[in-house]
Please model this.
Amino acid sequence: MKEAIKKAVIVFSGGQDSTTCLIHALPKYNEIHCITFDYGQRHRAEIEVAKELAEHFGVTAHKVLDTTLLSELAVSSLTRDNIPVPAASNTQKGPPNTFVPGRNILFLTLASIYAYQVGAETVITGVCETDFSGYPDCRDSFVKAMNTAIESGMDYKLSIETPLMWLNKAETWALAAYHDQLDLVRDHTLTCYNGIKGSGCGTCDACSLRAKGLDEFLDQRDKVAEALRGKIHL
Model:
């Protein structure tokens, strides 16, 4: 009996998290389809980075989808040039102004439609709620609710997987190192809200979380690697 072809769709921004998800998924699937969204984001340089990385890893297909309608509806410092990106802060209450309302609702819906069309049984996204910026659409409860709604609405068996959901940023770096891709993720991904590849601007919340996690991993490699093995199948 011929073995079934395993296919996955990855919500792929070219940032640290989605690239680590791609690296982790590569040995697990016969086909990987990456989907990147152009929503008029301030840091739209990430789209070119995503193209470069998708080509580097030789994914089955890479689709860049125009979703600029989102930027017309969702007011955020990532969709409005006249709203400054705030410096990292641990004292804010509620989502920061970098939150794009409805972004992951739209992204997961469109990625799932794409999965339906290519016959993929899995959608992978790099959201997490352990080390994150306070976005409500990065929570596990949200993803599970979306998964239920999408399966019901399309009458299609689909699993939305979040490999990083319970990892902190240090453990996400450890996962890249486990796959021997630490340098690539550190130097060739774009996480910065101001659109600077690699270590980024150093002041926005995304850069702060990324740098803090990397420092922790480099300072405590063995301890972080052990914690990672307790949370994720390697």
Observations:
- The first strand starts at residue 7 and ends at 11.
- The CA atoms of residues 65 and 72 lie 16 Å apart.
